[in-house]
Fold:
Amino acid sequence: MKRVQFDSKFLPYLFIAPQMAVIFIFFYWPSAEAIRSSFYLEDPFGFGSSFVGLANYTDVMKAPEYLGIARFTVIFTVLVTFFSLALGLLLAVKADHVIRGSTAYKTILISVYAIAPPVAGLIGMMFFDQHIGPFVRFAALFGWNMKVGLDYFDTAFAMVFVSVWKQIPYNFIFFLSGLQGIPVSVREAAAIDCRNGFRRFWTVTAPLLMPTSFFLLIINFTYSLFDTFGVIDVMVKDKAANNPITLVYKVYMDGFRGNDLGGSSAQSVILMIVVLVLTIFQFRFIERRVHYG
Amino acid sequence: MHRTGFFDHLILLIGAFVMIAPVVVAFTTSTHTAAEISRSGLTLSIGNDFTATYGKVLTQQGGFTGKVTGLSMLMNSMILGIGFAVGKVALSMLAAYALVYFRFRLASLFFWIIFTTLLLPLEVRILPSYEVMHKLHLINTYAGLIVPLLASATGTFFFRQFFKSVPDELLEAARIDGAGPFKFFIDILVPLSRTMMSALFIIMFVYGWNQYLWPMLMTNDESFYTLVRGIKQILIVWVGSQLPDYNEAFAISVLAMVPPVLLVLVFQRWFIKGLTESDK
Structure:
């Protein structure tokens, strides 16, 4: 904190008041409401609600459908996180190497960052379209009859593909700035000590990138869990029947399509707990193993 | 120091191609008619229907009420993007100013209250948020579209970090010269923060422009639709149609991605600086 500060009785409260008002009305109130209504069963016709304890939670957890969606969410998250991190890192390492044309590469590689997930999903849908999609025609060459939107596996494949594509620029930007933050002296010393570029990467560069990677790991988890909503919605089009969906999509479906306020709230609270655990995990366990250069 | 190999360039070229090709194809295909696209698939050639398709998408009144046009969606996207970005910069600068430059009793409590918002994204509390908005009569209003999105702490941390790096001597000098809190903020801190404000503005504009789920819930009146929200409408019409309007869908996608992509590319340096320095 600052050595010198202003002393004022009410000014700081005045400055912080707008932010606090917004947070209380639009963050704490709905969050509290979610927790409260997760213990109640809402009458579908609007005639009040009754306290049911943990029934909403046990109903949710017992449903085989929910467990299936939870399993898919985990697989989806792991795949998206892994591929977008790996490809982002690969491109960043290469872009860090080259001198000629590096600005052009960089500009092209980050351009997709600003595209909204549903827009990415819509473009992806065209590429996976039954009639006009080049990917479908390409897959047909190998005898793969791709039916995105109808077949469970094919839809999941397209979702992962588009979600990874959309997230690569973000990881690329952070890895590249992490790589360029490594001092030249360290790089030169490493280059002298170790001639094998591949080994040099794993023993010198990778540990120095750990803080960045770790930060990105959490960001990519939250991206896969929450921000992919648009991609999924465009691919599934409100018809979850045979399609893979994630937990966040299920919260939306039950809450807004199924009008199951209690069940949807219970799912919200479960997701809140997952995010909380992830965050605590981030602060307590992983950070200790990270080398801060 | 590094030998730049052929493979480095090859990988980068493939990467660049995979990233940009879909965007280019989306544009080139949008310049053909729906029948052409349906017959010959996606294409890299530029067709003759650019003005026809885009003119139609921008001005034709669509939807159930006939009140929505591409232009009105573009306007709403602008209002959401700019309104959100300005609100975010203003709110978070003021809050960060209070947290860094003032000594007051509840400062650490406020800090934690703000910090908690980082833990729960909007998506996990959508239904109760909708109920709250309903109670406040904010459905189908610009305020309802923008203000709830401001309830997160990223911007506040961004400026808090930056203000802490501003030398203490500035405040000392300013106080000796008799500057009060308002004068110091407006005449010294705001000019100093110009780059940071621009960086945060760009990031937040893109974030606001790209919102999908929230506008979908908050607006059922078509005159409030944004471009990104309009994607949903395209898909609803799409289901069960004989010849989908591929060209119009692509045109809407192009309209929805051009402004944020251009902003990011033009102000690349600020944007990257803001992004890599804010989130860490």
